[in-house]
Structures are given as structure tokens and as C-alpha cells.
Queue: 3 jobs
Job 1
Amino acid sequence: MAEIGGRREQMENDLPNGFAITSMERLVGLARKASVWPVTMGLACCAIEMMSAGTPRYDISRFGMEVFRASPRHADLMIVSGRVAHKMAPIIRNVYDSMPEPKWVISMGACASTGGMFNNYAVIQGCDHVVPVDVYLPGCPPRPEALINAILVLHDQIHYQEPLTEKRRREVARLAEQAALEATPTHMQKGLLA
């Protein structure tokens, strides 16, 4: 019996300080990353690839994302797939604001990330002018495997993000959004044509 007590004391001395807090943070990160629910936000041709990622061939349900939510109040991930028109921007922002915290955004495709080939007055040159983006996914259109890779990158961000810094994450998102709003609008940029 004394040997068991001595072993217990040795284990307690070998454990680093804050072991319970670190384990709780990892547990919360694991729970968050295993239950990410995307909201339905298909805007153009990239939406077809996003929908096919949910089919049995690619099966994103392996990652706890089997159902695309129709209500933003039940979702915590927005996958902006396709070009974002100026008329659609307020709707995207409204859906994003309706999602509960914590929430994440994946910009899927060249059009959602940079405006793609549509460098005109009707298309916003990147959805990061409307919502803060966590992961950019390039391609025209990106394959479902690329979307799954972007989801895995987001899972790593979620898993290793400390829950105690949520207030700081919101502050950084607010500052990034403010900087994007203060940036020079695309229609005023002259580039090589000036």
C-alpha cells in the first residue's frame, strides 16, 4: 500500500503546474473542432463543389459536419463559396452577424477570395471586405478535397486556440474589419492603368 502512495506522490511531482487547465483547454478545443456546423452559403459555381463535399464520396461527416444548417443561429462556420456581388454583401453580413460566437469563415474559390476574373463594379474584390476570413481556399473552382483540407486547417486553428482568449480574438477581428473598411475601395484603385 505504501508503494502505491509513493508512486502517486512521484506522479504528482512529475506533472507540470497548470495540468488541469491545459487539459481543459485541449478538451474544449477538441469538442469545438469536432462539432463545427456550416451554414448554407452557396453563391456561384463553387457551391456545387461545396455540396459535393457532403456526398458519400468525400464525406465531410467524418469531421462532424454532416449537416449544412439552413439557419445561421445553428451554425458556427460560414463557407463563402463563389463571387460576392454588391447586392449580396449586406445579406452575407447579416447572416454572419446572426451566427453565435465563436464563429469562423472559409473563403472558398478565387472569386470569394479576390474577386477572381470579375474585376468590375458589380463584384466585391474579396469577401474579407464584408466578413473577417479565417482560411482562404484558392482555386476556380476548388475541388472537394481542397475544401476538406481547408476544413482541416481550420480544425487545427480551432483546436489550438485557447478559449480564454476569445475576447482577444473578437478584438483582432474587429480591428481587421475596421482596417478593411478604411482601405481604398476597388473602384478608386488605379493600378497599372493610371
Note: Residues 94 and 140 are 26 Å apart (CA to CA).
Job 2
Amino acid sequence: MSNTHAVSADKPEFYLTEEHHPESSTMLGFWIYLMSDCLMFAVLFVTYAVLGRNYAAGPAPADLFDLKLVAINTAMLLFSSITYGFAMLRMEKNDRSGTLLWLFVTGIFGAIFLALELYEFNHLIHEGAGPDRSAFLSIFFTLVGTHGLHVTFGTIWLITLMVQVAKFGLVEANRRRLMCLSMFWHFLDVIWIGVFSIVYLLGVLG
């Protein structure tokens, strides 16, 4: 680690001459985090594979899920991934206002996704199909709810970055943070495609 030694009137001072958070180490650390998240979701999917048909004489997926609603919700998340890509393109052009616009649109799609998911959970619970009804519903609420929490945290992160970009512009630190959030957001898209295919689609059609 390189440093520079400056002598003041009172005592010597040391300070770093390189960037405090090098981009390479930040991105590597975030990739490691995503891999740990991947393992967590893998465990949840395996648990769903084991418990997903234990209905305890209760409702099955075909009795509960509205595929049209879930398809709309899936489209919202996929659209949000596309609009985040547009935000990154505007960032590469050093267009702060364009970046903020597309981040805002991404946040709207994310909020709609969360609202529809909360509506679905509320509807199921009022129908007597809460997480305590069967092993299938327990793992369903755990898997889908865990993904929903990630989208919630991602949306909060997105809003925070919008404030940072509006205040400080597209400085190197904000660009790095936007890149990390981009990986996180696309990762959530991939996980949701798995949820939609395995939990909803196979559950209703299988």
C-alpha cells in the first residue's frame, strides 16, 4: 500500500494516495455476496421441491394461484430490469438527468411488483391459505417472501442512489454503486423466473 508522509508543525500525518475503495475489490466482494445469496435461494428451492406437494388436505397450487396476475407481476419485474439497463446506458453517456429518469421508472415497476405480491399474500391469508395451513404454503410464503424482501431492499437502495446521484452527480463512487445494484437487480430477475416457472407454472399445470 502506497502512502505519503507529510510533516506538520505538531506531528507527522499519513494519508493514502490511492482510491479508498478500489473498483476491483468492490466488485469482487459484491460477486461473493451474490454467490452467497444464490446458495440461500438454492436451499429454498430444494426445500420447496421436498415440501411443495405436502398440502395437509388443504388447497393445492391450482386452487390458489392466479396465473394472469402472476404473469403481470412477472412482466413488471422484467420491465424494471430493462429500464435499469437504460439507466446504465445513460450513465455511460454521463447523462445524469437521463439516468435519474430511468432509475425512477425502474423504481415504479419495482413498487408495482411489490404491491401485487402483497395483494396476493393478503388474498391467500384471507382465504385461509396462510403459511400455517400446510408445509406447501409455509415454504411458498418463505421462498416468495424472501425474494420480495430482496426487491424491497433493492428498491430502498435504488431510491438512496437516486438521492446520491442527484446530489453529487455521476462520480466514480456512484457509478460503482449503480453497477453493484445493476447486478443485484438482474439477479433478482433470474431468481423470479425460477420462482415463476417452478412454483407457479408447474404448480398450476403440473
Note: Strands lie at 3-7, 12-16.
Job 3
Amino acid sequence: MDSSRSAQRAVIQFLRAEGKHASQIYSSMIDVYGEQCLARCTIFRWCQGYEAGRVNIKDLPRPGQAHVVANSATISTVDELIRQNLRITTREIAVELSISKGTVHHIIHKKLGYGKVCAQWVPKNRSENQKTARMGVCLTQEFLH
């Protein structure tokens, strides 16, 4: 038996169309689905929705920021802001681009691979040229001492 949420919503819609009350629907669904059954308050809420004329069993879009905020244009803009000012904060970037601090943090750390060192953004992974230059500086410092 399919115990997915959408299948249970379809059952609620069907039983509500037959004229059954929400408490009767809940009792029937507990018998059939057991622990996989939707919560009582959820069943009652869906029954109210179907009484009000709802026909769709899928979730409606929720308000909030879309998941497309971290697109390539935003990522490149964040990278450009960091390159212009290595001491810029995530809050300043968030205000500048009108996106959440969490999204900025995700872009900086996961997408761009930056980390904060001495209050400056630096790439976590160095290029081969950077590694060679760093090794050269270390070797010259070693010979000086």
C-alpha cells in the first residue's frame, strides 16, 4: 500500500467527497496506514481545505526566498565584491545584494571556497603558482635564520 503523503491526501479527498467527517477519516486512516498515517491535525486541516473548495493534493508554493538565489550571476557578484574588499563581511554582502546572510555564507564557503584569515577572505585552495611562491618564501626565511 502506498503510504506517501500525496496518496493519503487523495484518500482524504475521496472520503471527504463521500461526506465522511474528519474524525471518521482519521480513524479509518489509522486502521489502514498505522504509524505511517498523517497526524490528526494534518488530516483535519486537509479536510477543511477540501470543504473550502480545494481540489489539488499537492502543496501550494510557500512564500520566501526561491532556491535560485545562488545562481551563477549572484556567485560572480559575491566573488567580485570580495575581490574589491577582502575585509567585507557577510552582512555587508547580504545587504548589498538583498539576499540572506545564510545564502551569502553558503556561496562564500561552499561555492567559492573562501575562508576568513586575519579578517580577510582568502581562497582555501591555493593554485600551484601560489604554493611554489609560498614555498620559496619559506625556504628563504629558513636560510636567513
Note: The longest strand covers residues 114-117.
